[in-house]
Amino acid sequence: MKHHELAVKFYKQKGPRHDKSLWAIRQKRDKAVKEVKEWEELRDKASDIKDYVIKNLQSLVDEFIKNAKNTGIEVVFAKDAKEHNETILKYLKEINAKKVVKSKSMLTEECGLNEYLQKNGIEVIDTDLGERIVQLRGEKPSHIVLPAIHTTKEDVAEILNETNTDPTYLTHKMRKLLRDEFLSADAGLSGANFLVADKGWAVVCTNEGNADLGAVLPPLHIISVGIEKIVPNLKDLGIFLRMLARNATGQKITTYTSIFGKKDNGKRVIVLVDNGRFERLKSEFNETLKCIRCSACLTTCPVFRRSGGHSYRYVIPGPIGSLLAPLTDKKEYSDLPFACTLCGSCEAVCPVKIPFTKQLVNMRRYVKKIENGELRMENFSIRLAKKAMHSPAMFKLFGIILRLTPKPLLESVAKEWSRYKALPAIPKERFIK
Amino acid sequence: MKIALHVPCYINELFPNVAKATALLLRNLGYSLTIPKNQTCCGQPFINSGYETTLPNMYDEIFGKFDCIVSPSSSCVGTIKSQKIKISPKTYELSEFLYLQGHKNLAKNHKPVILHNSCHSMRHLDVATPSELNIPYKNKVKEVLGCEIIEASRDECCGFGGVYSIKEGEMSYIIGKEKLNDLLSGWKYYFTPVITGVDMSCLMHLKGIAEKEGINAEFKHISEILLESLDEAS
Q1: What integer pLDDT is reported at residue A297 of this predicted model?
Q2: Per-residue pLDDT for A374 more than 60?
Q3: What CA–CA distance (Å, rounded) separates A48 from A60?
Q4: Is residue A370's pLDDT more than 70?
Q5: A230 touches A197 (CB < 8 A)
Q6: DSSP at B121
Q7: What residues in B contact A40, CB-CB < 8 Å?
Q8: What is the CATH number of domain A36-279?
Q9: Chain A nearest-CA residue for B43
Q10: Would you place residue A423 in the very low, low, confident or very high pLDDT band (cuts 50, 70, 90)?
Q11: Which of A132, A263, B32, B218 has the maximum number of C-beta atoms within 10 A of its C-beta?
């Protein structure tokens, strides 16, 4: 099923609740952002830093690896998802790990790490509350910061075999269950929000402290992180830390912001992943590498709020997902750049000023390139219409044809419109005759 | 100042009254206005459908000699501006043009209207401030109108989106219906509400929904409201 069908199905199932919850978060975000009078300046600065990062990515990667090694972290570079998964398995095998606790990382979702480890006999427990809920439901996150936003408290009670649907009660129950997992895990896996190049440190932002428990309790902590998460120095990091949580959920800062260097009670490994990023750097979509995964573009998107994240069928949904997914599989995700009204709200909330509107239009052109063979009829009419763009006489002819066409025929030609909306009445005369 | 009227193709075909109102309004305000004949389409539907296209060269040819070009559609102006042709910097959406010329409160005696702030006017042009940005709020359409204005509680998209309304017809309708309800929720008068805006395309979409659902509302482009007020005043 493609986006539209899944979107309508989701909306009909869930009604307006999903949209209302996310709009409330958008409003919280607006309020928090407006507390910072230099917000728009921060966006300019953040965008400039990220432009610098994508222009100097290779040298920043080298600098980070050198400095991380100096602080006592092992760093492995993985060129793709396969290498990433194999590397992590190798480290886990070394200590004969049977169970790992994992905190949120969209990159491990991108690489399909959970499935890979489970196939190799290692139990993976997601420890972020929302991620644990979707894991127990056998689903994928539907939002990159609020992974279980598509579920209700009743859904959570059901997976915990509870009749009490009180959110506080359910959270405490989940907390207790997860504590036992933390204490018995052989290793902790996490992502990272930022890597500081000149220090060789990894920065992890969470609200539940679950990444910290996974990083500190077991003897092995592995961080999976994409190369684009590098920032040059601590001063630049400060700018992103001021923006990330405000823009995502309207908090001033995440409850836990942890900076990891060498691990005192064991080993810390960073798996630095390319998986197509250096390739993307050379493409017209290289600005997508500026993304800090704050999720504000998902939350604000009028389509996403009503369609839910699963309708995008890719690990990262919403506007940023519609730019990333077709780069991994053009044919499968060719519908995504069209699941968008080009309203520009994503661009207005983006903390690093990714030019979403322009990129989404370019992505439509990019996916069209394979569709050309399949859509001859559309091609023919488009070619005709494009000719008319340059010919006022042809344009006039179209106007005459429009006026001669009986209404039922017009309605059937424009059936995607007339099924839901009345067609405008066609006036007898044009303005410029 | 020599002004040319850009007539968006869909307005020329479907809403000639809007083009007419814009022309009369500008002339009544004392501007010398030319309406060039051979206008076609700015290419927005093709570009947004993923086809490569360039604005017809004749756009520069037709409009190049004028001091400024005024258009009653912010999405067409957005396209002309994004294409970076010669006339791009001197092309203005109607309400923005009026605002820059210092026309304020032109409809101050008009009965209350509901204003739909379109995404193109807020997020692609500088006609009004969208709620996402932390910059001082302004709304040029409201200032030009000057009458009592009722707005939706959310300044989000109406769900039209041009090609979106065809690609995802049902979702487009769903977003549109919620928008319509939001726009009408603040209406507290006994007479039929009038919904206005600078983009006839959003209004066409909302009107289509209202008609199909039997919702009582009138839809008028801002030029029609402004012209009515000017006529009453004189």
Answers
A1: 98
A2: no
A3: 15
A4: no
A5: yes
A6: I
A7: 133-135
A8: 3.40.50.10420
A9: A389
A10: very high
A11: A132
